[in-house]
Amino acid sequence: MLLDSGSTMDSAMFTDLRLSWNPNFMDEAMTFSLGVNNVLDEDPPVCDACGVIGMSPVSHDLPGRVGYLRFTYQN
């Protein structure tokens, strides 16, 4: 990809995985989720024009694999 600054940036594909469960009680208002962002631990492409950190924080999360557990309740 050619940036406005004239430098190029490689492409990357990130894989996220989430499993969710809605229990049958309480009118299915609760959701339990377990997930992993960036399952394959892909690094974001280097962006020379993006400043000191060398990546675009607007387009990408911080590098590395991140797991999470989420509980939501909708009334």
Can you give a write-up of this model?
It is a single chain. The protein has a 3-stranded antiparallel beta sheet with strand order 1-2-3, with no helix packed on it. The chain is mainly β and about 80 residues long. The mean pLDDT is about 80. The chain has strands at about 15-20, 30-35, 65-75. It has one domain (about 15-75). About 0% of the residues lie in helices and about 30% in strands.
Secondary-structure element sequence? EEE
Silhouette: elongated
Task: Outline the low-pLDDT stretches.
Answer: none
**SS field, number of helical segments:** 0
What is the C-alpha radius of gyration, as a whole number of Å? 18 Å
**Gap between N and C termini, in Å?**
45 Å
In total, the number of strands is: 3
Count structural domains.
1
How is the quaternary structure best described? single chain
In short:
With 75 residues, this protein is mainly beta. Helices cover 0% and strands 28% of the residues.
How would you summarize the topology of this molecule?
Layout: E1 17-21, E2 30-37, E3 66-73
Antiparallel strand pairs: 1-2, 2-3
Describe this protein with a few key phrases.
mainly beta; 75 residues; elongated; three-stranded antiparallel sheet; 28% strand
